[in-house]
Amino acid sequence: MDTMEKLRILTDAAKYDVACTSSGVDRAGVKGQLGSAAACGICHSFASDGRCISLLKVLMSNACAYDCAYCLNRRSNDTPRTTFRPRELADLTISFYRRNYIEGLFLSSAVVGTPDYTCELMLQTLYILRREYRFGGYIHVKAIPGADEALIRELGLLADRMSVNIELPSNDSLKRLAPQKTKESILAPMTRIRDGIRENAHDLVKYRSAPQFVPGGQSTQMIIGATPESDRRILQLTEGLYKKYSLKRVFYSAYIPLVEDRNLPALNTAPPLLREHRLYQADWLLRFYGFTAGEILDDAHPDFNPVLDPKCNWAVNHPEEFPVEVNRAPYEKLLRVPGIGVLSAKRIVRARRETKLDFDGLKRIGVVLKRASYFITCQGKSASRIQTDNPAVLMGILRDRGLPQGGFQPEMPEQLSLFTPTKEDGVKCLTGQL
Amino acid sequence: MSDRPTVIYYYDGTYAGFLSCVFESFSEKEIPAGIFAADTADQTCLFGAKYIETDRQRAERVRVSIPKKMGLEAEDLLERAFLTCMPQRELHMLEFMRLGYQVGRRVCSMLTDPTVDRIEKAVKFLGREAHLLLGFVRFSECGDVLIAQIEPKNNVLPVIAPHFISRFSGEDFMIFDRTNKMALIYKDGEPSFLRAEKIELPPESPEEQQCRAMWRTFYDTIGIEGRRNELCRRTHMPRRYWKDMTELQHLV
User: Fold this and answer.
1) Which residues fall within 8 angstroms of residue A233, CB to CB, at 6 or more apart?
2) Hey, of B211, B227, B241, B249, which one would you mutate to test binding to chain A, going by the most A CBs within 10 A of its CB?
3) Where is the DUF4130 domain (chain B) (predicted)?
């Protein structure tokens, strides 16, 4: 099979993997050598689904020995199989990189034969890139659960970021849909990578020249909507992953039914894109806004409000926290106001040292008054024309309006069936800048 | 200074030339109604026109005064503002500087001031466009040289140059900016900027064609049909960039 055909098959098999970020590592180019990395990450293109393309995202091989029910590459599925030769893939990466098509390589794989053999193929590819071609671009590599510890470590020394897929949000679901994987087999490599990063941080303090182990940190992803977990459960799992495993990112992927199985949603089920979008919004609240999972969702509300984003939802249900006086409130309080983001909160703090803020000024600073005006005062004055201590009124005014995007049909609870999510949300929930 | 503008400045379009205009404005105690690069303004107008010669010494005096009076941040902001496509950018920059000389370092924190806000927004746009182009620039191999063309709104070449020089330090490459008629040339480890009207490219080699075809294959395969979203794609990647991007030019 020629490289073109392999590229088509192995890209097609990799496209459901979510993460395509190239962030977390700042590495200047070395004189005379190819490649560098930027901590902010760089998107090189956007696919027809609006997701960012930053890395050459392919599988090493799709000839899988496993038979996971939800997966296209499962052994029992009738699909063409192929495997890249390590040098073939390394050369392809370099020729794309030189033309600035990509920021680097995202290498995952089905299990060819054994996890160890798969790992060795990937390792050879990375070895050719890093040691032979002195490639300085970004490399994200998937750890293959069940592979030897030494091989994972070796991969970590060549890659910028590693990830282990959690796949499904609970052990029960794993048992049902991926019988060859267990919670333990997934968490074991995750733990090893975490410990490797910690040890490495220690070594780097002592020896500046110590080799770097996964400098971009590790991430994971899980499939949403294939199994019955509540949003609250998923969010708690996420919080735990950030805290216990020091993950850089958790990615969610709305389940798109591609294979038939009696344990899975029917083939014509629309992917739960709105739910995925809400999870990302909540994920941001956890990482940058100082929220805890328990604040965002609780026992009484185990699932996201389809018509309000999680931050608005929290604010509407906590009238006792508002209004916030922008000229005095501490940074942490400002962050909790809908319509004020991390950047605008910082700019408010900076600008109010020089002048008293008014609503015009806030607009210039970048605050979204459409949402914020119900929750703030400027020098004691409010710009809200409605009653702000009544959650029902606020919810009505803040709810998402507009038309859903094509293929975007969230399930709505009955009492809210009059509302539809906004166009804006339809766009945002498909963004690839993950 | 008299507040009624009665004069228009013309200058040679360089940063030093602009700084000479600033010097002129302060020494003559006048605020011009406009400051234009000599080849861009139409000469017929109501106001008296003055051509300000670029004076190295005067420009240097102004240049040194900026970090001293209003801080390094303001200096950086002004240098970037000069690269933006904001209409009347020179006049707005002069206004910003007048404010800066008055209030000092505080000027960069005055985020609610319309003058500061204008400059900030323009610079933000420049930064955003430059960041996008770090990814969207597409090189083609022509012999041993990598060549790319861009058509940005702002003058981003000086902003993105360090990135590409660091990344492709072992290569020879060129990026040509059709909007500002300028090329960044990096040869044998030495970068230089050059003015050029346009560039002619030789036909692509079979290897180049093969590589482009592979990239198109990758691009066409990676999108998930069930999640197709044209609006989202255009939001992140405005159509005006497509014509120079290998995987998208056939859609323009």
Assistant:
1) A169, A170, A302
2) B227
3) 87-247
